[in-house]
Amino acid sequence: MDNFSLQEYDSVLNEMISILKAPHDEFFALWYQAGKSLSVGKFRTLEDNLKFISRELNVSFTPSQIQCACNVRVDPVKLMDFVARAMAPKPDAMETLARLKSDGYKIALLSNCDTEPPVTWPRTPFAPYFDATIFSSTCGLEKPDPRIYRLATEKLGVKAEVCLYIGDGNNNELTGAAEAGMRPVLIRHPDEGNVYPLRSGEYEGGSWNGEVISSLKEVLELL
Q1: Which of 91, 129, 150, 160 could serve as 97's disulfide partner, Cβ 3.0–4.6 Å?
Q2: Segments forming the whole domain that contains residue 63
Q3: Torsion angle of C-alpha atoms 88, 90, 92, 94, degrees rounded to 10
Q4: pTM over 0.90
């Protein structure tokens, strides 16, 4: 699937800022700072996140403002429309996943994310093909923490050395997978231009020196 659109993501934040009447740049900085806490489950709800920002800014958000801002962020129609577009499978993805399943391979998802993906994931076309899903916001661990990779192997009932780890290199996940005993492979689509800017790690600057593929179907050639 494609990376999330920064323009669309920021437009939602701008709408929230307008409702909260918060200083723009300071809100953005604190939102991204709080993102890490969201991804490991420190903030269980979006309301908790906004209350934290309110305290840090020393600006009072009324309960009504917080509720309206939350509605913008998690509006079911907007959210599912955004997820549907952002998580639209690339042309070879579903065919490859179906082939892997039919060949008997076990598949797991490891994601550093906030509280929304675990809710929307079951409605995506990918969900039926995965034997285990591990979200940082629900397990309290983030890549490249070695424990999150061990959690994946435990859920799949396999050893790390037989695992092929495919990722875009965000959060140094490939190095983490290698240190956990897995075989890491960077997937980098040639048409990927407007990538989500919060990504950081091996991908940026072309610093990854390991195996690289440009489409998911190439995984079949690595097995």
Answers
A1: 129
A2: 6-83
A3: -20
A4: no
